[in-house]
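I am writing to request your help with a piece of structural work I have in hand. Thank you for your consideration; the sequence and its tokens are set out here:
=====
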Amino acid sequence: MNNRILYILFFIGILFTSCVSTQDLIYLQNKGNSSDAALSPVTIKPYRLQTNDVLSLTIKALDPKLVEIFNPNTNSQQVPNFDILYFNGYTIDDHGNIRIPVLGEVNVLGYTLEEARKKIEDQLLKDYFKKEAGIFVNLKLAGFRYTVNGEVASPGSKILYQERVNILEAVANSGDITVTGDRKDVIVIRQFPKGAETFRIDLTDSKAVESPCYYLQPNDYIYIKPLKQKTWGTGKTGIESLGTIITLLSLATTTYLLLKN
């Protein structure tokens, strides 16, 4: 009798330990170390341009004919398209330069977008245009590019046409993390001009919004590790785990009866 109780308790223990807890699935939980009413300022460092970034440059003036050479295909780019921007945009080469008509090579490596925009505008006003021409320079990244890999529904490189992207938006845009994905230890690898840096973030904790990697930077790589339940293969829910246990018991019983006969 005691052995039966032990077996029952053993299988119940397996059933519960092999399931994925709801605490592992819910985002931004208040774990007692934060207040729902508190607003914490998030410091976002401006992105500094790197090699292989693709820039979208638009130059306007009071007389559009003066700047036609800078905007060869503006009429065909009313809808953002990375393929068009890739071929018609300005790619930063290995030396940190972009080649602009008339201006030639302009070094923008390590500049913020605003610093690079002002540099181009100042150079145009200094060498080619008068202030009365009304030169207006608009410089943007040709899409916010990042990569998500691991336990998500749709892994791969993604491009969003917006200025700022947080990690929850990136995950949602990849079809969300699967049930067997580890939301408590998400890895973000970020490229800097001097090398790469690795960050870790717990997406189940509400204090994740204060993490330096909560807001992504272009070219970030996000990796979602699998939970141990996926390795065990016992099931993600109690029903799946129970089904696995019943299957194992049936197999053991069948094997025992065959050997006995």
User: Anything to note?
Assistant: The two ends are 26 Å apart (CA to CA).
